[in-house]
Amino acid sequence: MEEFLRRLKTGLEGLVLHSHLHLLYLVTPAEFSASIPLAPDIFFQRYSALNFEDLAAAEQIGATECMVMLMASGRSLGSDAKALLHHFYLTLILYDLWKQNSIWYVAQKYQVHRGIVQNLLNSASALGATLNNFCQELSEFWAYQQLLPNFVKQLSYCVTMELLPLMELPAVKRGRARQLYVAGFKSLADIAKVDPRELVAKVHHLPYKTANQIVSAAKMILLEKADALKEE
């Protein structure tokens, strides 16, 4: 907690709010440095693609262009600089998820197993909620009291971003959507073309009646969307 307290206090001295990158850095769990190695070429490519506002946040955090150039060229950096850049690298992964890229896409982009990317996102969301509750109790962090609630809420939506299409279906909430997704039914189209009996076989504790309703609803939603496109 001392590390996060330091981050919060440092942020008060110059939090960059032109984008969400700086806030994401505050809630990035550093322990994932062990399971997500820093790939210099990917980092340099991703850093170079940042816009002016994001670069301003990176500079304020300490991930300067000079440091990134030194790292990319294979030059030696101190342990603190390496740790900071690695932490910021994890933040860039979260930033791509924040922009509503799928976990599959981000995992492939950073050459990391998608399960690890999902865990990183889950941990960041949980940490954000913890820091939000912590800041609500301390008057010195009044700025975070205004900033964090909506930010944490939006970050939690990223956790279920891939499930949102499935959650359009009646009687399908987050838990059921996750079951369907894990079973290989990742879109409405996947469900619309399947036999309800296959859903029952692949999704635990799913009654046939409910499976039939889900398949019928998926077909109906797709038809409605197709009709809407024709009208446009």
What does this molecule look like?
This protein is mainly α and 232 residues long. The protein has 2 domains: 1-158; 162-229, 5' to 3' exonuclease, C-terminal subdomain (DNA polymerase, domain 1, Orthogonal Bundle), CATH 1.10.150. It has 13 helices and no strands. It has helices spanning 2-12, 21-26, 40-48, 52-61, 65-72, 79-98, 103-110, 114-136, 142-159, 174-182, 188-192, 196-202, 208-231. The protein is elongated and about 60 Å long. The mean pLDDT is 90.
Quick tags:
mainly alpha; 232 residues; DNA polymerase, domain 1; single chain
Architecture blueprint of SSEs:
Elements (H helix, E strand, L loop, with lengths): L1 H11 L8 H6 L13 H9 L3 H10 L3 H8 L6 H20 L4 H8 L3 H23 L5 H18 L14 H9 L5 H5 L3 H7 L5 H24 L1
Helix pairs in contact: 3-5, 6-8, 7-8, 8-9, 12-13
Q: Gist?
A:
The chain has 13 helices and no strands.
Helix content: 55-70%
Strand content: under 5%
Low-confidence stretches: none
Mean pLDDT: 90
Distance between the termini: 53 Å
Domain count? 2
Q: What is the number of beta strands? A: 0
Overall shape: elongated
